[in-house]
Amino acid sequence: MFRNLTPLLYLKLRSRSLSGLHLPSGMAFDEPPVLALQTVKGKREAIAVGHAAAKLQGQPQVEILNGFDHPRSLLADFTVAEKTLQLLVRQIAGKTFLKPEVVLHPLEHLEGGLTQMERRGLYELCRCAGANKVHLWIGRELTAEELRSRQFPSEGGSLLTP
């Protein structure tokens, strides 16, 4: 019953891009997965995410971080990635009492498959960022209709569990 009311976010993850689709609105997005932190009275605070954070590059006492930028894995810094994803999810899904369901689709660093540690890390990352339910999809890009129906094709990809 609540399945049709629960917002769904399809997140396609690359080290330099977090793109996807918000359903039911159908809004497409593409943001750099960066977080701007500012040091105020010795304490670091998140002040912007995505394009807004990237625009702050070079500002005094502002640090731009990417928790997804690592040569071997998509998850480089869990804490930074968590805050980045948390703020981006809030920005994209808006404020609602229903937590979104997330389909996370990593698109890089897949050689040899994801390790159990990587699967668990990506799953936990989404849960900590505010997802009600997480699907980890590896394979071809999903269509809006497949996402709406939550039908993951048996050919062209696989749904992984943590």
Automatic annotation (TrEMBL):
It holds the Pfam family MreB_Mbl. It comes from Aquipseudomonas alcaligenes (strain ATCC 14909 / DSM 50342 / CCUG 1425 / JCM 20561 / NBRC 14159 / NCIMB 9945 / NCTC 10367 / 1577). It comes from the Bacteria. This is Rod shape-determining protein MreB. Gene3D superfamilies: 3.30.420.40.
